[in-house]
Amino acid sequence: MSLEGRHIDEDIFLNPEPEKNRSVNQDSLLCEEGAVSDLSNLFIVADGMGGYNGGDFASKFCVDNVKDYILNNNGGSIISTIRSAIAAANEGIREKNKDK
Length: 100
Fold this sequence. Notes:
The strands form two sheets. Strands 1-2 form a two-stranded antiparallel sheet. It has a two-stranded antiparallel sheet with strand order 3-4. The protein contains two helices and four strands, in the order E-E-E-E-H-H. By secondary structure, the protein is an alpha+beta fold.
């Protein structure tokens, strides 16, 4: 779902614009307003590490993989699941980087 310039509710407005020295926005956003696994909703913001090549790929990879991990690994503590999801996404990015 595209969130650019989208007003989600009275408290949330997302306007992802590229940094001054970038032609593309390297940040990625996820907004699931409905239930995701045991969660009533899920919002993820991943900073694209502006200034590094591939920041847009890494942030999108992170958002997608964290969501998938949460969907496929429920039943435990949500805090533990989120920590594990972030660690798994980070390891996945490291593995992808080895291929380059």
